[in-house]
Write a structure and sequence with these properties.
By secondary structure, the chain is an alpha/beta fold. The chain folds into two domains: 110 residues, Enolase-like, N-terminal domain (Enolase-like, domain 1); 195 residues, TIM Barrel. Helix content is 34%, strand content 23%. The protein contains eleven helices and 13 strands. α1 packs across α3, α5 runs parallel beside α6 and α10 runs parallel beside α11. The longest helix has 18 residues. The two termini are 20 Å apart.
């Protein structure tokens, strides 16, 4: 017999999180639990309004499939029963956790990956004045890599302020679709001179083709443009890096497929996150062991987190506790 439950949970942020599309002071996640033969798996997802999702719509999607889940729907059949997105992600991750416990193996062993024990994550600087962003960079100066959110305003001064205050850090600039091609060309030189190692999603996905043949002086990364493995063929020759997020792929199953195909096509790999708890990050860590760039810092924004939570000190993530997720217990 299988028991299937799901619920929303809200977590406050200790400071507002600001990107080009707006700001937020809290995050609501969806938690799924699947209990079978005395073993429990759980997973978490973060509905994303930018992708047409809300907490209510994701709960409705999960509710629509609850009878099939209770009747034993497999993880493989789940991939066609729901589209990629937050609803499938929470269920898929819960089923991976359950399978690991039922088989007495870790998710890492099931995937053929290493256990997440020594990952380096970025920490993110939200959009603010050049002075404010520089002050935050000063606090992160010992991080190997910093991620900087940007809109189209005052880009050069902001990136100079960050670099001057964290001169040894690699910097990823994430424009979240807010730039145009003229701005990209205008600031590329300044970005390269100020420690930037990757420019992530400068243009909206429907303008990707404008970047083809740009021969940019720094690698370009696709985030909002890359959801599932089927997107890769279109993105080849436009982006150098793809950002894998489980709330876009619809879970670890598709994320693993996207990872393997992207590597076969010579894309570099970044693993990112939405604003979730350590439970969301834990699932992403199993893909992040294969990535060049890791952006799983969302728990550092939360006022409270889960038991056995993750920590990040100067970019070093704590080892994943199997009691949180993915272990063989």
């Amino acid at each position: 017999m299988r028991i299937f439950t799901f619920r929303p949970e809200t977590f406050a942020l200790h400071t507002p999180f600001v990107i080009s599309r707006g700001s937020r002071t809290e995050t609501t996640v969806i938690v799924v639990e699947v209990i079978e033969d005395g073993k429990k798996g759980w997973g978490e997802s973060c509905p994303t309004p930018h992708y047409g999702e809300s907490v209510e719509s994701v709960l409705d999607q999960i509710a629509s499939i609850a009878p099939q889940m209770e009747q034993g729907l497999t993880r493989e059949k789940l991939q066609t029963a729901l589209p990629a997105g937050a609803a499938r992600n929470a269920i898929d991750c819960a089923m991976w956790d359950l399978e690991a416990k039922q088989k007495g193996k870790t998710i890492a062993e099931l995937m053929g990956h290493n256990w997440p024990s020594s990952l380096q994550s970025v920490e993110t600087i939200s959009i603010g004045s050049a002075e404010a962003m520089g002050e935050k960079a000063k606090k992160l100066a010992n991080f190997p890599t910093i991620k900087v959110k940007m809109n189209a305003e005052d880009v050069k001064n902001r990136i100079k302020a960050v670099h001057q205050n964290a001169p040894k850090a690699r910097i990823i600039v994430d424009a979240n679709e807010s730039w145009n091609l003229d701005l990209v060309n205008e600031v590329l030189g300044t970005l390269k001179e100020n420690g930037v190692v990757m420019l992530e999603q400068p243009l909206p996905p429907n303008e990707d083709e404008k970047l083809r043949g740009l021969n940019a002086s720094i690698p370009l990364g696709g985030d909002e443009s890359c959801h599932v493995a089927a997107d890769l063929l279109r993105l080849k020759g436009i982006y150098d890096v793809v950002n894998i997020k489980l709330d876009k792929t619809g879970g670890l199953t598709e994320a693993k497929k996207l990872l393997d195909q992207a590597k076969d096509m010579d894309f570099d790999i970044m693993v990112g996150c939405m604003v979730g708890t350590s439970l969301s990050m834990a699932a992403g860590m199993f893909i992040a062991t294969e990535a060049s760039y890791v952006d799983l810092d969302a728990p550092t924004m939360l006022s409270t987190d889960r038991d056995h939570s993750l920590t990040i000190k100067d970019g070093q993530m704590s080892e994943l506790n199997p009691k949180l997720y993915g272990g063989a217990t």
